[in-house]
Amino acid sequence: MAISFDRNICCDLNKTISREWLVTNGLGGYAAGTVAGVLTRMQHGLLVASLPNALQPQLLLAKIDEEITFDQRTYYLGTNEYRDGTFNPSGFVHLEAFRLEEGFPIFTYRLGGIDGLILEKRIWMAHGFNTTYIQYRVLRPTNPNKPVYTRNGTTEPLNANTSRLTQENEQGRQEPLVLTLLPFTANRPYNQSQRSQQAAHIHVQTHRAEGTQPAGEENQYSHQLPQGVTGCTITADNIKQPYHLLATGQAENQPTFIPTGVWYWNFIRRCNSIAGQPDTDDLYLPGVIRAMLWPDSQATLTLIVSTEKLEPQLYQCDAIASLYKKNIEQRQRALERALHPQPATHNVAQPSNPLHLLPVTTASDPYAGGQHYLQQLLYASEHFITQYYPTTGKEPAQSSRPGNLKREIQPKVALVANYFAQEYKTRDALIALPGILLVTERYAEAYQFLRDLADHFIGGILPDRFPTAQQALTDHNYSNADITLWYFYALDHYLRATGHYEFLEEIFPRLAESINRYKQGTHNGIHIDPRDGLLIAEKAGKALTWMNEYYEDRPITPRAGKPVELNALWYHTLMLMQGWSERLEYIGHIENSAAYYQQHANRCKHSFQQRFWQPERGYLYDVIDGPEGDDATFRINQLFALSLSHPILDTVYQQQVFEVITQHLLTPYGLRTMAAHEPGYRPHIEIDARHPHAYQQALHQGSCWVWLLGPYVDAMLNQRKNTLTESDSHLFQEYLWRKGMKLLEPLQARFSQGLLGMCENIFDGNHPQQAGPQSASLLSTAELLRTYKQLVKMRIDHPASLLPR
User: Domain named Glycogen debranching enzyme bacterial and archaeal type N-terminal: which ranges (predicted)?
Assistant: First the structure.
């Protein structure tokens, strides 16, 4: 089931300008924009590429505006918003329909009224390459009363040899459309504005088709293109990597590149305006591309923007069609693989439970709704998995086979934390690893990520961000107390999913060393209090937990002392080490026995019950032994005391804490970080240019986080251990399963809002819950996927009692 919008939505600017699409290439690069066609963020563009030696992704091609001459009339399909508040042109009025097909955006424009023509534009990227394709074709509607058309069972792009239209060509040759494309380039860091006066100098090298060079100019152009292909190569002084702008079709399209070299000024980016950020951008038009397209023709025109080598497989029609087909097949296989997993290889075992479709309770066809839900989560997960190539001093080689581009250098794996901030947060990646990499059976990537990250322990601490080829780690990047503990959490999930205990044997000495460093004391005031065995972390001016927002270099929520979730994670880590030690003791080289870790875990748990429990309130302290004493603020952090696989909180207290969390923190879109009755609670996320700190202050003072639904469901499922009889257990399992599905259901509607096919990170704490500025979140996607898998496991374990009614 594709996400699609008809003319009722497409011609409403307010609805289309707030809906965004995203396509990624697996290298940290992407293409993104709005359904309306107007760019609303500095980060929007048709090619954002992570380039060697660049500290940030670079925006190369910002957008393309189309001008169509047909039936003695010109249609302007682009939409631009300017600083004075005007829109020019306003091409969204011609947008007939929009849909995401296998995750790729397809725009359908109507030209010439009900009996006119249909122009289709589709956008996709080649996986593993900094290349974006924008393809156009022209159709006559199959039925004049219907704005849509069909194909004969194909989703691949059309060229002269790959597809047929459902309606035969009319008698005689139709007059062609003249398609003029205006490619606006940016040549800047993807999140920064530019003005033409300060912009770097831009070099444009035009390429001619074979046999078209004027006499005496044969050596002026470095690359001759075949008939039907035209374009240029662009180099900016501030971006050493050249990139190509090409148009390819058939010779009869007569594509022509006409150099212009002019600046367009004062484009406004409304999202940046609201946030009080630089919001005005100038774009450069290196030239225009003009071509002819015939209605009801099998031919297409494809615009290509790429940083790859200018070789035939980049612009050959057969290669383009093959690449698109492979992209589609890969996405379809991802869903098929999730539903019908194959035995794993390379020292990993077959997963214990395959994914199944779960019914969505309110859908007219609950299982169809379940397939759409799972499909969107799987597609969304792909956007966050990126690879980067270590610097080797030479260009990665490519194969010359069309449609079969390959790299010779093995890439490293990284996980993008959010769009469009493009951050690589280690904590987020470790929490997300079970959902993003294990549920989707990317075991090799999970292993590589955990193995590579283990090389960056310093004093038992892991860094806040994952190192890249462009940015080495510094001491400043080790400002946390919990990421090492989340590493144990992710490793536990990996081992249980794969049975790859050879890796545990390899990594165990580093794990034991980390435990010892935590006990003895390490960076950031991290150590075990010898009086009670609890973990303490405090350093002036530092926020060392996941609530780590700063304003004017001061932590908003410092939480110095003994945070509740930090000690829950510490106990969980000790229990994991106890179990792993039992498994590895026979090898004889481990430093401490299982009893050693069990002893410290028992003391930690005993002290936790005595020190954190507030009997008069019925829930836990957020922090104890802080600079100002014990902090009784009712925050979400205590959820981890009952959600982990080894919960530190005694069962006698678990249900009471779970109920008060449910009453005060649970919302339709996740869980609040703070109860509404607490002083300092902020019910709404404020994006105010006059008060830029208001957003940071709201993040952990009441905002609702989607990803916390994962730990909440974990805590809910942990309650099943307290059931008494087998019959009661089955009834309770069914209740929990249905409640879990009900928790997931509201998020399905978010797939067609905001960044399409994705789920946001945070929402307002109070109704109506508006989404925050982060359009898509790694944590949200991962925890929804992991929770879905948890509910699948319940369905498999208790099939008779969980059938839908």
Answer: 19-141, 171-297
Q: Are residues 81 and 66 in contact, defined by beta-carbon separation less than 8 angstroms?
A: no
DSSP string, 189-234: ETT----TTTSPPEEEEEE-BTT-PPTT-TTS-S-PBPTTEEEEEE
pLDDT of residue 72: 86
pLDDT value at 393 more than 50: no
- Mean pLDDT, range 48-64, rounded to an integer: 92
pLDDT computed for residue 361 by the predictor: 58
364 pLDDT higher than 70:
no
> How far lies 585's CA from each of 505, 514, 590, 592, in Å?
10, 18, 7, 9
User: With bands split at pLDDT 50, 70 and 90, how would you rate the model's confidence at 172?
Assistant: very low
Q: Where do the domains of the chain lie?
A: 3-330, 366-392+410-802
Q: How far apart are CA 184 and CA 322, in angstroms?
A: 28
Beta carbons within 8 Å of 287's beta carbon, 6+ residues apart: 183, 204, 206, 232, 257, 258, 259, 260, 261
Contacts of 53 (CB under 8 A, 6+ apart): 240, 391, 470
Q: What is the pTM of this model?
A: 0.90
Structure tokens given for 772: 């925050």
Cβ-contact 517, 573 below 8 angstroms: no
Name the residue with tokens 């609040």.
672
Rounded Cα distance between 737 and 741, Å, is 6
* Region 366-392+410-802: CATH code: 1.50.10.10
CATH class of 3-330: mainly beta
Q: Running DSSP on this structure, what letter comes out for residue 15?
A: H
Cα pseudo-dihedral 308, 311, 317, 320, rounded to 10:
-30
Distance CA 314, CA 260 (A): 24
Same fold, 3-330 and 366-392+410-802: no
